[in-house]
Amino acid sequence: MARVFANVKTKLPGPKAKELLQRRLDIVPNGVSYGIPTFVKTAKGALLEDVDGNSFIDFAGAIGTINAGHCHDTVVTALHEQVDNYIHTGFNVMMYDPYIEFAEKIANLAPGNFDKKVMFLNSGAEAVENAIKIARKFTNRQAVVSFSGGFHGRTLLAMSLTGKVRPYKYEYGPFAPEIYHAPFPYAYRRPESMSQEAYTTYLLDQLKDFFISEVDPSQVAAIIMEPIQGESGFIIPDKAFVKGVYELCKQHGILFIADEIQTGFGRTGKYFAMEHYEVEPDLITISKSMAAGLPISGVIGRKNIMDHAKSGELGGTYCGSPLGCKAGIAVLDVMEKENLNERAIEIGDKVMEKFEQLYKNYEVIGDYRGLGAMCALEFVEDRESKKPDGNITGRILKEAQNRGLIALKAGFYDNVVRLLMPLVITDEQLEEGLEILEEAIEATVKTAVQR
């Protein structure tokens, strides 16, 4: 296939990137990882160009941060206008109206037919930490339940909530107390003898037993759940499971927190993925694509819950920066005018159609799944055993990079390729990217057979 958008002219890393990479290795700690051994020069829409003139199609979107695309004109214009006026005063010192406008718009979009309030923070992990603080303050309870395979950040509390050891938690204990992990549905790996309905019933019964064996529900402030588990490989729970957990929360006076940091702002075809499950969370954490790459996050919640904390108990120096708020307002404008929710569904349909073909052609693909434009391929050694194959996944991603496509690895077993392309991607760019992905799979499988 002739390349129109992707064009890798040098071996990765190229000469300039190689020099920068050495400087990076000399000064940046090894614990800060990188996905592709090169450095960006320019970015626009769904395309990236590196310092050596190589061009790439972006199926990673800065780990789901660029739903509105790189450097969207509307966002860039809003940022320039804001910089000309003021950069930061500290909302807890002298307030500014972009914070109010952005909060009002988000509250109106969030699920739930009740009064809401919104506070802004800096990062996804910080949003999670504050949601837990708010839940504990309101309920006067300490325990929090998260799920196996969930990812909620790298700070102490967020890391404690995360349900995967490596690379997030290994040798970083002791962890925050009163955190409990419940089992999460993984439909592809459920017992073959068990139907989806029976599996959901079984897991909900396990959660009820969990309240006997692990923690009494009267001590639980909140249950936090990703509508789709991101880092664990886009694991999509059954609607009945999510609603069942929600009902258990209501039964026991437990707050339901939806972690929408990766799933929000159009990724699944709705502003918030919880809308698919017809659940109205008490609290919602947001970040990533809410501001097209600006570092801002937030907590949306029921008014009476959010107001329970007293003045000065929440906030921080840079929380809800004017630049982040202005970028966020611009993102919402782009989403509405360019119908990005509908576009996510269109993208998802095209990707899943391609995945179906790939599944038929390559036995190393054990499963393919997606909701909207949040799509993933799971790789296995063989379909009968379903034994995860993280090794082949890494080789496929490297092959893709060398051909001009950037995608991400994920999965509870590190054996999933996940796609988070900007929702402004054109059909031509999407098609070319999917063709490159297929070529990378084919080349990797062929090499494995030759070995």
TrEMBL record:
Reactions it catalyzes: (S)-3-amino-2-methylpropanoate + 2-oxoglutarate = 2-methyl-3-oxopropanoate + L-glutamate; 4-aminobutanoate + 2-oxoglutarate = succinate semialdehyde + L-glutamate
Record-listed E.C. numbers: 2.6.1.19, 2.6.1.22
Pathway: Amino-acid degradation; 4-aminobutanoate degradation
GO MF annotation terms: 4-aminobutyrate:2-oxoglutarate transaminase activity
Names of required cofactors: pyridoxal 5'-phosphate
Keywords: Aminotransferase, Pyridoxal phosphate, Transferase
Entries under Pfam families matching the protein: Aminotran_3
InterPro entries, per database record: 4NH2But_aminotransferase_bac, Aminotrans_3, Aminotrans_3_PPA_site, Class-III_PLP-dep_AT, PyrdxlP-dep_Trfase, PyrdxlP-dep_Trfase_major, PyrdxlP-dep_Trfase_small
Keyword Transferase on entry: yes
Family (UniProt): Belongs to the class-III pyridoxal-phosphate-dependent aminotransferase family.
Name recorded for this polypeptide: (S)-3-amino-2-methylpropionate transaminase
Natural source organism: Virgibacillus halodenitrificans
Primary gene name: gabT
